[in-house]
C-alpha cells in the first residue's frame, strides 16, 4: 500500500515533480480552472470580507473554549443514541475503529472521502486487521485503484488526467470488484459511468460505513458532510453501522455558526455557490448504530502555540492550494502528507512536530507571496505561521547556515564594513563568475549572476556630497 | 519637503542606479533628499529565513538611523513591507512615515505625472509584497501610464509570484526556476522591450533568467523609468 512515510525533504521531492511535464500540465490546467471559478463566486458575494472575519472569529472562539464544546458535543451525540470515543493519537484512533468494525463481524467497509482517516492512515490499519476499506469518492477511488497517494485535499487525483484514469480503471477495477466495461474510453461520461457501476455494488453490499465530517454542531450533536457526488450520502445512510472519525477542531457551537461556514466552504473549495449534497445526521436512527471517534493527533499541541494555532481554523477547502504557485509546480506528493500545499506546509510540521528533514523543509516551501492568505476563507495568515516555524527550525542544528547568516549580519550591522565589502566586490567585478560555487550554484544554474557596480550607492552619495561641498 | 531615502542593501550594493534615479526623481519633484549613512539593511533576509535575533539587531539599527525623519522613501516593496508590516512581530515599532516609492509619489506628493519621458514598450510585474503586503494597487501603473512616449502593455498572469522569494531561490531552486520560466514566458508574450517592477530583488531573478536565455528584454526598476527625461 502506498504511504507517505519516509518521503524525502521538499526540495528533492519537488525537483522531481518539476521535471514531470504531464504533471505540470495537469496541475496548471486544474488549479487555474478552480481558481477562476472561486474568484467569480466570491466576487458576487456582497460582503465576503465580513463573512471571512465571522468565520475566523467563530473558529477562534470555539478553539478558546474547545473543552466546553467537545463535552457538549459528546453529551448531545450520546443523548441522540450515538457512542463517542476519544483518541489521543493516530494509533489509538485506528485501534478504536478496527475494534468497532471487528465487533460487527464484517470484513468490508465503505468510506466517505475523509481527510482525518487519511491522516491516521486508517486503510492500512484496517488492511492489517484483514478488513478491506473501499473508497467511494470518485477521486479517492482513482487513487486507491492506482495504489497511489492523494495529492490535493479536495481533488485527491488532481495529478491524473483522463487518459491515465482510463488506464487505471481498465487495469485495476477487476481486482477490487466489478471490472470496467470492455472498450472503456477516456470520455469523462464513460469514466463516470464505469465508476458508478463499480461503486453501486460496494454500496449495496456494505454493512459498515466510515466517514469524516466537515463540521460537528455541538448544540445538537449533528455531523455535517459536504460533497459533490452523493456517494457520501450513500455511505452514511445505507450501512447498518456508521463510524465517523473527526478531528477535534471540526466543532462549531451552534447552527447559527454553521450557517457562516456553509457559505464560505463551497465557494472556496469547488467554486460553487452551494455544493450538491449536504448530509447531516444526529446520533443513530432505529436499527442503526453510530460511533463518533474524536481525534486529537497533535491538535492540542498546535492549540498551545500562540501563532500556529490559527491553522486549526482550517476548513479544508483547498483554496490555498489552488492559488499557490509553489503547489502548482511541485504537486501535492512533494509535501509528504495528506495535507499538501500552503496549509500542509504549516499543518504537517505542527501536527508531527519538526521531527525530520521533510518536516523541517516544509516551512521553507513558500516564497511568502501571500496569495494563500488572501484567499483563505478563515483568514489564516499562512505566511506568518511559516515565518514562525522557520524561526523554530533554525533554533535546531543548522551550523553552516547559522555561520553564514551570522557573518552577513555582522557585515550589515557595520556600515563601514559594508562599504568595505562593496568596494571589494566592485574592484573584482571583471572576475564575476558565471557559475557560483557550493549552495550558491542553485542561483547560477538558471540565472545570470549580477555584476556588482564600480561604485556603491553610499560611495556615490559620499562623493557627490563631497563634490557639492567643495564647490 | 525633506525626505530620507532608505535605499536598501540590495540597491546600495548591486543596483546603485536605482538609488541615484530615486534621488534624481525626488529632487526634480522638489524634495530635499537625505541619505543617513548609518543605514544598512532592513533585516528581511534574516527574518524570512528564521534568524530573528539577527533581524532584530538590523531592525534596531534601521530605526536609529532614521530617527527624526517624517518621511522615509523606500524604492522596494518588499523592504517597505518588512519594516511596516513585520517589524511588530519582532517586537520593534516601525517608524512612522515609511513609504514605498509609488505610495510616496501618489499619496504624499499627490502626483501621477512626474514629467518623465521614456519612449519604449514596457510591461509591469507587480511584485508580491507590493501587491499583497503593502497593497499599492494601481499606483505604479498610474505613474507609468503618465510617462510620455511609453507604451504600457499588460502582463499575463501578472499577479503570480516570479519565484524569487529570497533564500527560497537557493533552498528550492527547481520550483523557483519553474516559476520563473512561466513568468518569463508571460513577459515574452507581451512583446515588451522592458520589464519594470518596484523590487530589484525580483528583477535580479527574472532578469538573470532573461539574460541567461539571451531573451533580449531588459529589466528596469520603476524609479529608473520615472527618472528618465528627454535630456537622457
Question: Would you give an account of this structure?
Answer:
The complex is a heterodimer of chains A (471) and B (232). In chain A, 52% of the residues lie in helices and 10% in strands. Chain A has 471 residues and is an alpha/beta fold. Chain A folds into 2 domains: 10-299, Rossmann fold (3-Layer(aba) Sandwich); 399-470, no CATH class. In chain A, strands 1-10-7-4-2-3 form a 6-stranded parallel β-sheet, with helices on both faces. In chain A, a hairpin with a 4-residue loop joins β5 and β6 (222-227). The longest helix of chain A is centred in the N-terminal third of the chain and has 23 residues, at 21-43. Chain A starts with 9 loop residues before the first helix and ends with a helix. With 232 residues, chain B is an alpha/beta fold. Chain B has helices at residues 9-13, 16-28, 44-49, 52-65, 77-86, 101-108, 128-134, 139-145, 168-171, 173-190, 200-212, 222-227, and strands at 2-5, 32-34, 72-74, 98-100, 121-124, 151-153, 194-197, 218-221. The two termini of chain B are 25 Å apart. Classes of the chains: A alpha/beta (471), B alpha/beta (232).
Which consecutive residue ranges of chain A, at least 5 long each, have pLDDT under 50?
none
Number of domains of chain B: 2
The fraction of residues assigned to DSSP E strands of chain A is 5-15%
The low-pLDDT segments of chain B are none
Task: Please identify the oligomeric state.
Answer: heterodimer
CATH topology of the largest domain in chain B: Rossmann fold
Q: Please report the distance between the alpha carbons of the first and last residues of chain A.
A: 81 Å
Q: Which CATH top level class of the largest domain in chain A fits?
A: Alpha Beta
Main β sheet profile of chain A: 6 strands, parallel
- Number of separate strands of chain B: 8
Our count of helices of chain B gives: 12
Number of strands of chain A: 10
Task: List the total number of helices of chain A.
Answer: 23
Number of domains of chain A: 2
Rg value of chain A: 26 Å
Order of helices and strands of chain B: EHHEHHEHEHEHHEHHEHEH
Average predicted confidence as pLDDT of chain B = 97
What is the helical fraction of chain B, as a range of percent? Answer: 40-55%
Amino acid at each position: 500500500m502506498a504511504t507517505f512515510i519516509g518521503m524525502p525533504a521538499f526540495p528533492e521531492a519537488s525537483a522531481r515533480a518539476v521535471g514531470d511535464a504531464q504533471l505540470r500540465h495537469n496541475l496548471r490546467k486544474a488549479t487555474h480552472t478552480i481558481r477562476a471559478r472561486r474568484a467569480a463566486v466570491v466576487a458576487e458575494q456582497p460582503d465576503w470580507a465580513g463573512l471571512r472575519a465571522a468565520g475566523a472569529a467563530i473558529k477562534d472562539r470555539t478553539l478558546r473554549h474547545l473543552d466546553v464544546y467537545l463535552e457538549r458535543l459528546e453529551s448531545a451525540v450520546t443523548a441522540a443514541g450515538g457512542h463517542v470515543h476519544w483518541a489521543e493519537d493516530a494509533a489509538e484512533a485506528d485501534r478504536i475503529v478496527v475494534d468497532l468494525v471487528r465487533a460487527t463481524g464484517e470484513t468490508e467497509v465503505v468510506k466517505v472521502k475523509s481527510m482525518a482517516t487519511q491522516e491516521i492512515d486508517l486503510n492500512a490499519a484496517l488492511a492489517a486487521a484483514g478488513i478491506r476499506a473501499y473508497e467511494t469518492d470518485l477521486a479517492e477511488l482513482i487513487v486507491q485503484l492506482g495504489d497511489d497517494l492523494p495529492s490535493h485535499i479536495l481533488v485527491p487525483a488532481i495529478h491524473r488526467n483522463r487518459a491515465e484514469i482510463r488506464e487505471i480503471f481498465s487495469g485495476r477495477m477487476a481486482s477490487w470488484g466489478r471490472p470496467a466495461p470492455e472498450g472503456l474510453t477516456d470520455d469523462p461520461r464513460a469514466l463516470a459511468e464505469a465508476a458508478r457501476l463499480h461503486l453501486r455494488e460496494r454500496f449495496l453490499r456494505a454493512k459498515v460505513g466510515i466517514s469524516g465530517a466537515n463540521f460537528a454542531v455541538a448544540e445538537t450533536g449533528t455531523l455535517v458532510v459536504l460533497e459533490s457526488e452523493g456517494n457520501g450520502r450513500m455511505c452514511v445512510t445505507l450501512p447498518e453501522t456508521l463510524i465517523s472519525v473527526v478531528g477535534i477542531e471540526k466543532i462549531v457551537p451552534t447552527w447559527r455558526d454553521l450557517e457562516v461556514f456553509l457559505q464560505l466552504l463551497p465557494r472556496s473549495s469547488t467554486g460553487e455557490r452551494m455544493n450538491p449534497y449536504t448530509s447531516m445526521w444526529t446520533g443513530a436512527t432505529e436499527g442503526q448504530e453510530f460511533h463518533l471517534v474524536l481525534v486529537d493527533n497533535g491538535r492540542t499541541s498546535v492549540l498551545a502555540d500562540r501563532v500556529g494555532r490559527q491553522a486549526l481554523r482550517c476548513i479544508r477547502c483547498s483554496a490555498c492550494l489552488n492559488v499557490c504557485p509553489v503547489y502548482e509546480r511541485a504537486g501535492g506528493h512533494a509535501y509528504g502528507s495528506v495535507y499538501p500545499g500552503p496549509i500542509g506546509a504549516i499543518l504537517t510540521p505542527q501536527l508531527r512536530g519538526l521531527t525530520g528533514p521533510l518536516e523541517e523543509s516544509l516551512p521553507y516551501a513558500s516564497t511568502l507571496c501571500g496569495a494563500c492568505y488572501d484567499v483563505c476563507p478563515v483568514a489564516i495568515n499562512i505566511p506568518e505561521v511559516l515565518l514562525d516555524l522557520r524561526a523554530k527550525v533554525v533554533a535546531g542544528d543548522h551550523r553552516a547556515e547559522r555561520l553564514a547568516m551570522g557573518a552577513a549580519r555582522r557585515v550589515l550591522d557595520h556600515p563601514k564594513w559594508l562599504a568595505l565589502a562593496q568596494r571589494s566586490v566592485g574592484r573584482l567585478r571583471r572576475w564575476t563568475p558565471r557559475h557560483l560555487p557550493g549552495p550558491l550554484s542553485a542561483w547560477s544554474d538558471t540565472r545570470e549572476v549580477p555584476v556588482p557596480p564600480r561604485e556603491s550607492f553610499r560611495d556615490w552619495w559620499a562623493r557627490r556630497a563631497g563634490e557639492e561641498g567643495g564647490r | 519637503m525633506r525626505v530620507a531615502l532608505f535605499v536598501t542593501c540590495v540597491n546600495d550594493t548591486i543596483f546603485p542606479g536605482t538609488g541615484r534615479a530615486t534621488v534624481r526623481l525626488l529632487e526634480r519633484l522638489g524634495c530635499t533628499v537625505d541619505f543617513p549613512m548609518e543605514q544598512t539593511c532592513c533585516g528581511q533576509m534574516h527574518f524570512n529565513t528564521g534568524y530573528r535575533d539577527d533581524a532584530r539587531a538590523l531592525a534596531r539599527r534601521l530605526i536609529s538611523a532614521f530617527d527624526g525623519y517624517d518621511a522615509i522613501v523606500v524604492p522596494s516593496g518588499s523592504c517597505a513591507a518588512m519594516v511596516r508590516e513585520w517589524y511588530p512581530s519582532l517586537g520593534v515599532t516601525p517608524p512612522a512615515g515609511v513609504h514605498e516609492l509609488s505610495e510616496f509619489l501618489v499619496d504624499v506628493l499627490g502626483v501621477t505625472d512626474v514629467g518623465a519621458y521614456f519612449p519604449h514598450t514596457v510591461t509591469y510585474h507587480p511584485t508580491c509584497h507590493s501587491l499583497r503586503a503593502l497593497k499599492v494597487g494601481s499606483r505604479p501603473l498610474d505613474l507609468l501610464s503618465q510617462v510620455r512616449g511609453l507604451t504600457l502593455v499588460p502582463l499575463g498572469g501578472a499577479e503570480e509570484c516570479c519565484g524569487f522569494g529570497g533564500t527560497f531561490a537557493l533552498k528550492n531552486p527547481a520550483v523557483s526556476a519553474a516559476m520563473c520560466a512561466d513568468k518569463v514566458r508571460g513577459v515574452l508574450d507581451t512583446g515588451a522591450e522592458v520589464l519594470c517592477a518596484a523590487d530589484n530583488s525580483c528583477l535580479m531573478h527574472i532578469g538573470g533568467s532573461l539574460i541567461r536565455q539571451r531573451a533580449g528584454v531588459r529589466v528596469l526598476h520603476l524609479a529608473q523609468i520615472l527618472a528618465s527625461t528627454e535630456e537622457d
